[in-house]
Design goal:
Blueprint: H1 8-13, H2 17-39, H3 45-62, H4 73-95, H5 112-119, H6 122-130, H7 134-145, H8 150-157, H9 161-179, E1 182-184, E2 190-192
Helix pairs in contact: 2-3, 2-4, 3-4, 8-9
Length: 196
C-alpha cells in the first residue's frame, strides 16, 4: 500500500514501518523547526536531534491516540514536538549551572500559553483538546500552538472576535475541570489553579 498524507495516521496506528519512513521523509524538517524554536537557547544541534528522535518515537508509540481527520494529523504531531521540546527545556534548565549572558536571548517573560504548555501533562492535554468540537479544536491550535492573535483567528475562521474569545474561555474552563487542577487551601476549600 502506498503511504500518503491521507492514510499516514491510519498506517502508523497499524505500525506500518513504511508510514514511519514517510513521516520522517516528509515531516522531520517541520518537527525539527518546532523543536529548534523552543530549544534555541538551551541546547546544541545534538540535543535538538535527540529530541527529534524522541518525538518520532512518541508519535510512533502514541499514534493510536490520534482520532482527528487526516488533515489535522500535522497539527497533532507539531504539538507533540512542542511539548517534548518543552520537557527537554525544563531538564536542560535544571542541569545548567552557569550561563554566559552573550549566549542568551532576553525574553520579557513567559506568556500564559507558555505556562500551560510547560505545566500540563502533554498527552493528557492533547487528548482533551482532540475531543473538542472541530471549531474549538482549531481555535486552540491556532491560538496556543501557532500563537496567532485572536483577531487573525477570527478572520481566518470567518467568525467574530467575541466568538473566539468565548470559545477560548469556555475551552480553558473545561480543560481545567478535566485536568483536575485544584489545590487545597489551608482552610480545606478547593481553589482552581490559574493555569491559563
Amino acid at each position: 500500500m502506498k503511504i500518503t498524507e491521507t492514510n499516514l495516521a491510519d498506517q502508523l496506528k497499524r505500525k506500518n514501518t513504511r508510514a514511519l519512513d514517510y513521516l520522517i521523509d516528509n515531516y522531520s524538517n517541520l518537527l525539527y523547526k518546532v523543536i529548534y524554536n523552543v530549544l534555541i537557547n538551551y541546547g546544541d544541534k545534538g540535543v535538538i536531534e535527540e529530541c527529534l528522535n524522541d518525538v518520532l518515537l512518541s508519535i510512533w508509540n502514541n499514534s493510536s491516540m490520534f482520532s482527528g481527520k487526516p488533515e489535522k494529523f500535522v497539527h497533532w504531531i507539531c504539538v507533540i514536538a512542542k511539548y517534548k521540546a518543552i520537557d527537554y527545556q525544563r531538564k536542560l534548565a535544571k542541569n545548567k549551572k552557569t550561563v554566559d549572558i552573550d549566549d542568551c536571548v532576553i525574553i520579557t517573560g513567559l506568556t500564559t500559553e507558555d505556562k500551560v504548555l510547560a505545566d500540563e501533562n502533554q498527552m493528557e492535554l492533547l487528548g482533551y483538546i482532540n475531543e473538542m468540537e472541530e471549531l474549538d479544536k482549531r481555535i486552540f491550535i491556532m491560538r496556543f500552538y501557532l500563537e496567532e492573535n485572536i483577531s487573525d483567528i477570527a478572520v481566518k475562521l470567518g467568525v467574530s472576535r467575541n466568538v473566539v474569545d468565548t470559545r477560548l474561555s469556555r475551552g480553558k474552563k473545561l480543560l481545567k475541570q478535566k485536568l483536575g487542577y485544584h489545590q487545597k487551601e489551608e482552610n480545606g476549600d478547593e481553589k482552581c489553579i490559574q493555569a491559563f
